[in-house]
Amino acid sequence: MTTLTAPNDLDIRSARPDQLVAGATGDWEIIVGMEVHAQVSAQSKLFSGASAAYGGAPNAHVSLIDAGMPGMLPVLNRFCVEQAVRTGLGLGAKINLWSRFDRKNYFYPDLPQGYQISQFAHPIVGEGVLNVDCDSGETIPVRIERIHLEQDAGKSIHDLDPHATYVDLNRSGCALMEIVSKPDIRSSEEAANYFKTLRALVRYLGTCDGNMDEGSMRADVNVSVRKPGTPFGTRCEIKNVNSTRYVALAVDYEARRQIEILEDGGTITQETRLFDVKTGKTRSMRSKEDAHDYRYFPDPDLLPLQLDQAWVDAIKASLPELPDAKKQRFRAEYGLSAYDAAVLVADKDSADFFEAAAKGRDAKLVNSWMTVELFGWLNKHDKSLADSPVTAERLGELVDLISNGTINGKIAKEVFPRMIETGDAPLVIVEREGLKQETDTGLIEQTVDALIAANPDKVEEARLKPKALGWWVGQLMKATGGKASPAVINEVIKAKLGL
Amino acid sequence: MSKLTELTLAAARDGLAKKAFSAVELATAFNQAIEAANPSLNAYVLTTPEKALDMAAASDARLKAGNAGKLEGIPLGIKDLFCTQGVRATACSNILGEFAPTYESTVTSQLWRDGAVMLGKLNMDEFAMGSSNETSRFGPVVNPWKRQDGANAALTPGGSSGGSAAAVAADLCLGATATDTGGSIRQPASFTGTVGIKPTYGRASRYGIVAFASSLDQAGPIAKNVLDSAILLESMCGHDPKDSTSLQVPVPDFAAAVSRGVKGLRIGVPKEYRVDGMPEAIEKLWSDGIAWLKDAGAEIVDVSLPHTKYALPCYYIVAPAEASSNLARYDGMRFGKRVAGNTLTETYEQSRAQGFGNEVKRRILIGTYVLSAGYYDAYYLRAQRVRSRIAEDFRQAWQKCDALLTPTAPSAAFGLGEKSADPIQMYLNDVFTVTANLAGLPGISVPAALDAQGLPLGLQVIGKALDEETVFAVAGVLEAQAGFTAKAKPWW
């Protein structure tokens, strides 16, 4: 008789069959949990008044505290605390009114104090959940274990000198939120979508700018594999993965690596690994045996952090509309499909842009111009919406011109690149370039009369196949320089041919 | 002019106010006294005579203009643990090299704000770790007091604030800053016939003081008498937003409390402080103290602090644990001493091996050990629990009394080298003082008698948190009743 292992509240999801990875010995299930470091959007650092701005000359944003000078003491930045609470509330998580800062001790030149101030035993935010829309259309709940506040380290630069390492302490002491998920993720695609959704959330909340190029968000990805129905396997932690795409690549590579080892009769050693973006592979950084003994203990320079429920409630009341709610509203208010709403809502900037452009207009038309034309151009030129030369107001005006018949869709496609080039209002461009739609039936009638006279065969054709008027429309467009209104053209042709 | 150095701080302040002498004259007298005495006593590790004269001249100008501060023109010595802008601060450790901070500690900046004059930096045990001032990179301080046995042995002034205590006792300053983590103000005061008070944890800012054990460290003064210590403490205290553990409470008029008397106060005598092998002179001192307070109208009550015997072991876990982390920043990377090796690890190892002395290394090792995985619960966590019990002992005692009277140290000053080979013997010096640090309570040492060898002995008064006023009131009565006027006979 076999004994079942005790029910494990960590292990509550099973992968869908299509998420399983086929191996030589059968299917494998991927198990992923993530620790995301999100830098708090703040003017100053977690325990000092030094600027937390990205960039700057090396060591330009360093206070005496950040440099670990003798006798310097940390003073907690309340703004950063508020951002962690906001993030927790955004995840529907438990806010711990009592939390504490601990010291994590280790030596490294980019850690001037010789310890990192973190929250080890008593984090500020407890359990919550993030609903993640997946490519399959399924929404999966990923449980959040905790969020804690901690200091970032400085940066060691090893490639400026063959014999020396340079240290830049600008980032040293910046506030990070470490958002720890439970191992509820079952594929590389889910992992990537989790990271993406979390990024969208913190950007909605304004608690982290989510700028991955600047290192504002990076993930430590814990990956293990197992045969479906068996307990979790040994995991490896892939450190500092800094894009959604890399998260997916790292999970896929690591899962295959582990499967190969296991299928060859080997065992997985718990270790920390690095994802090499050049090779797309992970490699060992240090094994569990080499792991530091961090000697955590409560930081005696700081009092335990005690929050007021009323203060937390006030933050809760000030939360903006979050992606889930916004998605529902976009569907109801603008009649968008679930897919279109999800695409817009995935990023706060695009949701805001859409709303600004769509207010009082044909929302579906706005959505199509925004997602097809504008996003197409931005993607092609590797730009973000924030850099868009076309504002929401201008895009709205373009849709207005189409809706009120000033121009047709075809002309609009000519106007749009001009808008990008010049930044001018669409109406100005239309007037300047004489692109207004030709609705003068007189000109159209004359042209049709001339065509009838010159092309009796086409007249015969049209009478036999009254739905195939493509030739006539084409000729008329040519004659009017594309400015003729399709509706008027159809009307006139039908009348003249007696269809 | 040499007479000026023998004044008390309060008397010098009055003399300056009455223009009996100038601040420059006063500073000059101290500069000269230090120059003459320091080669023998080694109390100062750095003198700043020109700075003293500049500051004194500025004080004279303010005295003349009628906008003098509370300590205008008062020359002070500063323990080397305090960061002083532009003036070398080493915590008497090689690892800090010639480090001259670009910033000033809050405590010293408040003294300068009130017009005090800096004479120099005072010797101490390395990183304040020691009870005899023998672990200093600059060598030990010699106690101005000698035994009357004719052997002329050099005695310790105690530690870690040995330089502060010796300088005050030998009239090399009107008062000195000091710090107390386990008794480092009170034990040296007891060994040198001076007054030293450690205020309530959080009264004085720790900003700019080189950290030893953050949850225990407190700054305080060593002075010639109780009133002087009260005057100095008032300037040193106050809320500081740069120290998160600084208390947001007003600073009372400590000086006024000194003459308040003890009528109606209940003074507790903790039985657990009666340790085996306590010298007779200390037994007598204690019972004299009890009698004096009784005579002055206090009620004496027996109290029990049952966890006292665990205080020293608890202290020697908590303090090294915090120190092991606090001293990690001394890595040879950004300031102080660096001994370059072939690798980063080698540089760390060599810088720290050569930079730290043996006692500091011992405590870093102990501290690292007690925080290590597998030992944390048995040592650090347990010590924290003991610490809560000790604090609870005091809370229970306050149900019965308003302050406690105990000896300050288990012995008079001992000879240099006598205990330095045996850390446990050395650590026992703190047996009566560590409890106040563990519980965060104010404690003062008042000189009250001489032993058979003519060496001073101190009595300790421990008060409730933030009740320094009662501590000063009791100390004022002890001082008056003891009529202690002895001074070390100059031999230096």
Automatic annotation (TrEMBL), chain A:
Superkingdom of origin organism: Bacteria
Keyword Translocase recorded: no
PROSITE patterns, sorted: GATB (PS01234)
InterPro entries with a match to the protein in the record: Asn/Gln-tRNA_amidoTrfase_suB/E (IPR017959), Asn/Gln-tRNA_Trfase_suB/E_cat (IPR006075), Asn/Gln_amidotransferase (IPR018027), Asn/Gln_tRNA_amidoTrase-B-like (IPR003789), GatB (IPR004413), GatB_C_1 (IPR042114), GatB_Yqey_C_2 (IPR023168), Gln-tRNA_amidoTrfase_suB_CS (IPR017958)
GO biological process entries: glutaminyl-tRNAGln biosynthesis via transamidation; translation
EC number(s) from the headed UniProt entry: 6.3.5.-
GO molecular function per UniProt: asparaginyl-tRNA synthase (glutamine-hydrolyzing) activity; ATP binding; glutaminyl-tRNA synthase (glutamine-hydrolyzing) activity; transferase activity
Residues that span the membrane, as ranges: none
Catalytic activity, reaction form: L-aspartyl-tRNA(Asn) + L-glutamine + ATP + H2O = L-asparaginyl-tRNA(Asn) + L-glutamate + ADP + phosphate + 2 H(+); L-glutamyl-tRNA(Gln) + L-glutamine + ATP + H2O = L-glutaminyl-tRNA(Gln) + L-glutamate + ADP + phosphate + H(+)
Domain Asn/Gln amidotransferase: 352-497
Pfam families xref list: GatB_N, GatB_Yqey
Record flagged with keyword RNA-binding: no
Similarity comment text for this entry: Belongs to the GatB/GatE family. GatB subfamily.
Subunit details: Heterotrimer of A, B and C subunits.
Name of the molecule in the record: Aspartyl/glutamyl-tRNA(Asn/Gln) amidotransferase subunit B
Organism in which the protein naturally occurs: Candidatus Phycosocius bacilliformis
Gene: gatB
From TrEMBL, chain B:
Reaction(s) catalysed by this chain's protein: L-glutamyl-tRNA(Gln) + L-glutamine + ATP + H2O = L-glutaminyl-tRNA(Gln) + L-glutamate + ADP + phosphate + H(+)
PROSITE patterns: AMIDASES
EC number: 6.3.5.7
Class of the enzyme per the UniProt entry, highest EC level: ligase
Record-linked Gene3D superfamilies: Amidase signature (AS) domain
UniProt-listed Pfam families: Amidase
Manganese in keyword set: no
CC terms in the record's Gene Ontology section: glutamyl-tRNA(Gln) amidotransferase complex
Keywords, sorted A to Z: ATP-binding, Ligase, Nucleotide-binding, Protein biosynthesis, Transferase
InterPro entries: Amidase, Amidase_CS, Amidase_dom, AS_sf, GatA
One GO BP: translation
GO molecular function, one term: glutaminyl-tRNA synthase (glutamine-hydrolyzing) activity
UniProt-annotated catalytic positions: 79, 160, 184
Keyword Protein biosynthesis attached: yes
Role according to the record: Allows the formation of correctly charged Gln-tRNA(Gln) through the transamidation of misacylated Glu-tRNA(Gln) in organisms which lack glutaminyl-tRNA synthetase. The reaction takes place in the presence of glutamine and ATP through an activated gamma-phospho-Glu-tRNA(Gln).
Database matches in NCBIfam families: gatA (TIGR00132)
Matching PANTHER family: GLUTAMYL-TRNA(GLN) AMIDOTRANSFERASE SUBUNIT A, TRANSAMIDASE
Subunit structure: Heterotrimer of A, B and C subunits.
Name of the protein described by the UniProt record: Glutamyl-tRNA(Gln) amidotransferase subunit A
Species this protein is from: Candidatus Phycosocius bacilliformis
Source lineage: Bacteria, Pseudomonadati, Pseudomonadota, Alphaproteobacteria, Caulobacterales
